[in-house]
């Protein structure tokens, strides 16, 4: 089942487009990797899909407007006057989670991300990776149907990366749609079902590893090779 349909989308800043006529869909239960060079427009696209930035043209439609979504931004945004417990209490309250479900899920996520001992501390005392984990726990707590994650791997330690990959797999099996931007292509290649390849605000390729290999005529190519090829073809 399709969750999000993006049609002829243009978006940018001060009416100057940095994303140009994008067309794609995001389906239920799939993990889609957004790959693009610096400044390609990945964060901008995340902002448009989550309604933070209005499109200049085209549209983003959600098949089920009632779907809950979550965003983990590239730069963690936490309240420095609130402990992690207070953040999580607040998220659970906003999503009307039953207390027992909330506590059970909170404890499981804290354990998975090795953050149990940080629960009553303030994010100002956290390391960069801990802040990222706190954001992830906040977004994963209420099990959104659509999860947007902007560059999740940079800053996470190996156990954090493993925990995130495990949770993403579990959430996908539950039917969640995950849209993730990343520069860590060897990990993306292993875990994503499909990819959107973005260069200078344009989609230069999309599909599974297999379909991209077929499209660009390079069997056995890695995601990095496919991305480089897609950009060459587009800008040649
Ligand atoms: N607030 C803003 N105002 C004006 N231009 C912006 C703003 N934010 C981003 N841009 C521009 O939009 C373009 C896309 O930026 P964006 O942050 O979406 O890229 P990105 O693909 O996420 O890059 P990176 O991989 O470096 O994080 C860039 O040219 C950037 O300079």
Automatic annotation (TrEMBL):
InterPro entries with a match to the protein in the record: AAA+_ATPase, ABC_transporter-like_ATP-bd, ABC_transporter-like_CS, ABC_Transporter_VariousFunc, P-loop_NTPase
Matches recorded under CDD domains: ABC_DR_subfamily_A
Domain spans labelled ABC transporter: 4-225
A UniProt-annotated Pfam family: ABC_tran
Gene Ontology molecular functions: ATP binding
Gene3D superfamilies: P-loop containing nucleotide triphosphate hydrolases
Keyword terms of this UniProt record: ATP-binding, Nucleotide-binding, Transport
Protein name: ABC transporter ATP-binding protein
Organism: Anoxynatronum sibiricum
